[in-house]
Every structure is written in structure tokens, then in C-alpha cells.
Amino acid sequence: MDLYFSPLACSMATRVALYEAGAEANYLEVDPPTKTVLSDGSDFRAVNPIGLVPTLRTDEGVVLTENAAILQYVADRFPQSGLGAAEGIERTRLHQWLCFIGTELHKGLFIPVLDRKAPQETKAYALEKNLSRLDYLDNYLKGRDFLLDHFSVADAYLVTVINWTMATPPIELAKWPNVKAYYERLRQRPSVAKAVAEEFELYKAELARKKAAA
């Protein structure tokens, strides 16, 4: 399968999940501004017209988009990994957390704050409105190692999003000690540590390319 990704973007969650599952995949880096696949110079929009990562092409040639859907596909494709959840309420809770991370944290909180073109008023409004989501998460994680009773694709997504606090100074993890402890604990997990280290190096290379082109 082929995973189209950009360094340290939300697509890193799928890399973590694939590493956790011990799955083989081709990792195809996409340059965000130009939507170019760096390995061959092709137009990524020919694969995903919206131009967003992650995008996954399965072994059967099916192209999947949307982070939550791709993560659930990986969990179902590799059930021995334990990344998913059993049918019933546990699976519904997995869906619940994927939706919460995607809407309340990823899109609701972090995207406005990370957007360099967003007005300061927009960033301030996003912080005022959505920091309460971290309060909720901090309370939930008290005494818990994971979002479910085991490491799941929801944790792969959450640790990816929390990792963005490195680039968002207004969101200081020390204010949410349970979230901070969760993040630091998961950063030590081999699949997460490997994904972060590799994508950080690719991110530095991306910055160097932009500097050279300026």
C-alpha cells in the first residue's frame, strides 16, 4: 500500500499505526505548497483532487482519504495489531474519540492557531473557544494510559495532534498535566518514537528546501 504524507502532519498518525502493526508500506512525501509527490514529481491532486494528506492507496488499488477513515481501515486490515476495538460499545467509543480528535482538537483548535495567514483575532477566538476541549481531555486521561483500555488508532491520532504543541506556544501542555504525561509516555512507545524521529528529519529537509528556493 502507498501512504501519501507530509512531515509531522496528521498523516503521521497512519505511519504510527502502520509501524505498530508491523505493516509494509510505501511512504510518498507530498510537498504541501505545490502538491507535488517528491519521489517522482507527479501532481498529488491526480490521486486526491482535494490535495490533502493522508491519502492511502490499498494493495487493491482503492484510494482512501480522511484521517479517521484511513486509521480505521488500518486497524481492520491488521486485526492482530489490536489497534481497533471490538464490535459494540467499544467500537463506538473508538469512533467517538476519532471524531473528537478530528473536529474539536485538529480542526477546531490547532488548525486556526497553526495557520500563518489567520488573523490574530481568529487565533484568539479559537483559543478562547476550544481550550476547554483540553480541559475535558485532561480530566478524562486522569489515571488512564490510553483513550480506550489499550493503545489504538485513536491514540496514534491524538499523540500526533498533541505533538503540534511544539509549534503552538499559546498551548502550553504544563497547564494540562495528565495530557502532558500521556504525551510524554506515548512519545516513548517505539512506533511513535520512530515515526516522530523520521518525520522530524524530513521536516527539517523540507525547511531547507524552502530556504534554498527563497
TrEMBL record:
Sorted UniProt keywords: Transferase
Pfam families on file: GST_C, GST_N_2
First-tier enzyme category under EC: transferase
Keyword Transferase annotated: yes
Enzyme Commission number(s): 2.5.1.18
CDD domains attached to this UniProt entry: GST_C_Beta, GST_N_Beta
Any GO molecular function: glutathione transferase activity
PROSITE patterns (alphabetical): GST_CTER (PS50405), GST_NTER (PS50404)
Domain GST C-terminal stretches: 87-214
Transmembrane spans: none
Record-annotated GST N-terminal domain positions: 1-82
Domain of life: Bacteria
Protein name per the record: Glutathione S-transferase
